[in-house]
Each structure stands twice: as structure tokens, then as C-alpha cells.
């Protein structure tokens, strides 16, 4: 992603926050890393 793509960054940030909020990020980190790496 280029620095000048602020809209794309916002979309990624939004998707990551949604995955964190609904537990998807935690579940995926436990699957692939064996433990929860989310802050």
C-alpha cells in the first residue's frame, strides 16, 4: 500500500478492527501461531 492511499488504509484499519472486535483475529492467531498474539 502506498503512503498516498489514505482511503485504502482506512479500509484495512476498519477490517482489522472488525476482525479484532468479533474474535476473528484472535481465532486466526491461535490457529496459525498456537497462541493469541492480539494486543
Annotation keywords:
mainly alpha, 2 helices
Summarize the structure.
This is Transporter substrate-binding domain-containing protein. This protein has 39 residues and is mainly α. The chain is built from two helices and no strands.
Structure write-up:
It is a single chain. This protein is mostly helical. Helix content is 67%, strand content 0%. It has 2 helices and no strands. It has helices at 6-21, 24-33. The model has no long low-confidence stretch (mean pLDDT 95).
- By DSSP, the count of extended strands is 0
Helix content: 55-70%
Sequence of secondary-structure elements:
HH
β-strand percent reads under 5%
Number of helical elements: 2
Class derived from helix and strand content: mainly alpha
Radius of gyration: 12 Å
What is the typical, i.e. mean, pLDDT?
Answer: 95
Task: Please mark out the parts with pLDDT under 50 across 5 or more consecutive residues, or reply none.
Answer: none
* Main beta sheet: none
Rough outline = elongated
Distance between the termini: 23 Å
Protein name: Transporter substrate-binding domain-containing protein
Organism: Brucella intermedia GD04153
Amino acid at each position: 500500500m502506498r503512503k498516498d492511499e489514505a482511503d485504502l488504509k482506512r479500509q484495512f484499519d476498519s477490517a482489522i478492527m472488525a476482525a479484532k472486535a468479533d474474535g476473528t483475529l484472535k481465532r486466526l492467531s491461535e490457529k496459525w501461531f498456537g497462541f493469541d498474539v492480539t494486543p
